[in-house]
Amino acid sequence: MNMMSDAIDLLYLDDSLLALNKPSGMLSVPGRGPDKQDCASERARQLFGDTRVVHRLDMATSGLMLLARSPLMQRMLSQAFAKRLIRKRYVALVTGHLGSALLNWHEIDLPLMPDWPRRPRQKIDKAGRPSLTRWRLLAFDKDSEGRPCSRLELEPITGRTHQLRIHLHAIGHPILGDTLYASQAVAAACPRLMLHASSMDLQHPMTDQALSLNCPPPF
Fold it and tell me: Which burial class, exposed, middle or buried, applies to 12 when counting CB atoms under 10 A from its CB (0-12, 13-18, 19+)?
């Protein structure tokens, strides 16, 4: 069955860029092999042939993904990401009760580097690249087994691979459904990784207008 023509959940569209809601379990870009060609960027390209990738979400992560519609826009958006001019926020469910005061921001400042023998995993290492995550408590909750969990808003200041997943695991509150870093019990607690790219704020490179994109989590 050819999944390429399936509709994508389009959140924003203009002549310069578009934003879509990538489902959990879908690749952002094509992988290796014919069975890994169906992905969010390819579905967008089939509908709007000029789309170009400027950033990615992990396959297990859902939510906002931004694509350019020209080589110039791809360069401009890539530069904005590199200069940290685009603010991204996520919502996650993590194990246990984390924090106490609602909406107060906290930081996780731990350097990361690839864990080469266990790629694609990353690891915390003082020789790694500086990595900073901001988080705040949104609510206390319970998982499907009735165990305590916390709903967090996350803001990655840096954009390292698996940064949110490994930072939360490092402080003892892994993301529910995380099959890479969490224990087997935590990984099995949910049918998917409970991490969702929920909002993005940027200055539109062509119009200079503030652009605020929102995509509420499905959990």
Answer: middle
Q: CA 144, 200, 103 angle in degrees (round to 5)?
A: 55
Give per-residue pLDDT as tens, 106-155. 999 999 999 999 989 999 999 999 999 999 999 999 988 889 999 999 99
Query: Exactly one of 35, 50, 58, 201 is catalytic; which is it?
Result: 58
Strand positions, DSSP E, 143-190: 148-156
Alpha-carbon span 24 to 28, nearest angstrom = 10
Contact 134, 155 (CB under 8 A): yes
Strands 87-95 and 148-156: antiparallel
**Is 143 a catalytic site residue?**
no
Residue 134 region by backbone torsions, left for phi larger than 0, else alpha for psi between -120 and 50, else beta:
beta
